[in-house]
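Hi F.,

I've been meaning to write this up properly since the lab meeting, where we talked about keeping a consistent format for the predictions we share between groups. The idea is simple: the sequence comes first, exactly as it goes in, then the structure tokens exactly as they come out, then a line or two of notes. No screenshots and no reformatting. I'm using this chain as the first example so we have something concrete to point to.
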Amino acid sequence: MSNKVVRLLNNYTKKRDSEKKQLASESRVSRRRTMFFGSILLGIAIILMLVAFNQKQANEELHGEVLATTEVLEKKNKQHSDLEQQIRQLNDDNYILRIARSEFFLSEEGELIFNLPDKEDKEQKQAEE
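Output, unedited:
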């Protein structure tokens, strides 16, 4: 004997089959909605990550430029302070007089200037002998 299950076709089974089909249909629609909104959410997350990555790279480049510019600014400030010091010295008559005497051998009236050889010149003469 074979044991077969015979399906009854009455109102209860028809109603039950109809409810199962309705539930399966609602489940499919719910899955599709979840997938749709999930994919939209995933797309937005990917776009935000790309924007954040690009911003981080731009920030690193700008940070490098700021460091380079800061170094240039420090050099220029030092050069500026050196030039200001030089201006102050050039406005001082004693400094100009000292430079004129040492560089150009200028003398006051009645003064004699003797040009003595430097140590290097003495060493060269001794090496030649």
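Notes:
The CA atoms of residues 105 and 115 lie 9 Å apart.
The chain has a mean pLDDT of 87.

If this format works for you, I'll send the rest the same way.

G.
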